[in-house]
Amino acid sequence: MELIKQFSLQHNNSFNIKTVSPILYQLNSLRDLSEIPDLDAECFYILGEGTNSLFVDTIAPVIIKPAFKGISISENDTNYIVNVASGENWHDLVTSCVQKGINGLENLALIPGSVGAAPVQNIGAYGVEFSDFCIQVNWYDFSSKTIKCLNSRDCLFGYRESIFKNEFFNKGIITEVSLSLPKIWQPKLSYLWLTGFRIEPKCF
Ligand SMILES: Cc1cc2nc3c(=O)[nH]c(=O)nc-3n(C[C@H](O)[C@H](O)[C@H](O)COP(=O)(O)OP(=O)(O)OC[C@H]3O[C@@H](n4cnc5c(N)ncnc54)[C@H](O)[C@@H]3O)c2cc1C
Q: Where is the active site (predicted)?
């Protein structure tokens, strides 16, 4: 685990707010999870890429930054199974899948932020949501100090909602997500904006 004192968050939030965290704990591997000190739930913040976070003071809370990396892909007869570490960038994941001919996530391209934050608000755009493909979220529980594997139903996904925004808020860290993307694919063009501009499937 990397520990950085007096860490400037100016380039880690999309408002470029000048704020300094007294300590940032950067988690580079799952082994680092056991080294997180016991923190009061009120005085720390789990930070992805900070695109949906607003710091309102010059002194920020202690930051825990999951920076786990890695993507692995397997397949069965009908689907690709994509396992992604939470520190990966969401748009890079979408691009990488589309370049490999694995389709389904394209409507969610260009949504800023990390993979780990995607389940938190169940990101969505143009008629498609993260939960449409999510089959598992691995979540490190601070209280039991174990990684729990939650299936999509356990995550209580709703419109920009999940268990991670509510009951599990600041109680653990999303370490990995698993997505299932069907091999037989139809672009989803039903969203009003897309049909209005007559985007052809070949554009994707
Ligand atoms: C220009 C712009 C366009 C956007 N467009 C869309 C859009 O089309 N659709 C949409 O749904 N959203 C959109 N958003 C919102 C944003 O993209 C999402 O909320 C994204 O998931 C934020 O990712 P992040 O890594 O920056 O999260 P952060 O801002 O770092 O964190 C957001 C929340 O997630 C928690 N969190 C982050 N990582 C973890 C983790 N590993 N474990 C546990 N909790 C974690 C944080 O504690 C915080 O509560 C947009 C934002 C911007 C600025």
A: 160
Q: Which atom of ligand 1 is nearest to the CA of 175?
A: 41
Q: Residue 193: its pLDDT value, please?
A: 60
Task: Express each pLDDT in 12-45 by its tens digit.
Answer: 999 999 999 999 999 999 999 999 999 876 789 9
**128 is in which domain, residue-wise?**
71-182
Long-range contacts formed by 144-148: CB under 8 A, 24+ apart = 145/33, 145/34, 147/30, 147/33, 147/175, 148/172
Identity (one letter) of the amino acid at 38?
D
Q: Is the same domain home to 171 and 157?
A: yes
Q: Domain of 49: which CATH number?
A: 3.30.43.10
Tokens of 42: 């009120």
198 catalytic per annotation: no
Same domain, 75 and 27: no
Are both 91 and 106 inside the same structural domain?
yes
Total number of domains in the chain = 2
**From atom 19 of ligand 1, which residue's Cα is the shortest distance away?**
52
Span between the terminal Cα atoms of the chain, in Å: 39
